[in-house]
Amino acid sequence: MNRLAAQQQALLASLFDWPPDVAINNLASYADSTWARGLKVYQANGHALAQRALQAAYPVLAQLLGSESFAALAQDFWHQQPPQRGDIGQWGEAL
Predict the structure, then answer these.
(1) I need a labelling partner for 61 at 20 to 30 A (CA). Which of 44, 50, 70, 72 fits?
(2) How far apart are CA 74 and CA 8, in angstroms?
(3) Would you give the end-to-end CA distance of the chain in angstroms?
């Protein structure tokens, strides 16, 4: 695998690695400080997307748990069961 392909694979894997320090360590050979900040932005976006997608699919659960607990659930689920398709609307069935 060439360096660019390896770098792309490391970035993709790091989007779902948790905690963030693990993700940054996995990118250490490719990353500088701007990468670390960028990775945190991508991860935060993924967490927000997970919460919105699951809230649309499970509105009653979201209401029962409350915003803070549901956000934590969505974040954990994002890392335990990352999406396998490009359509986030098809994700979350395992919940």
Answers:
(1) 44
(2) 25
(3) 35
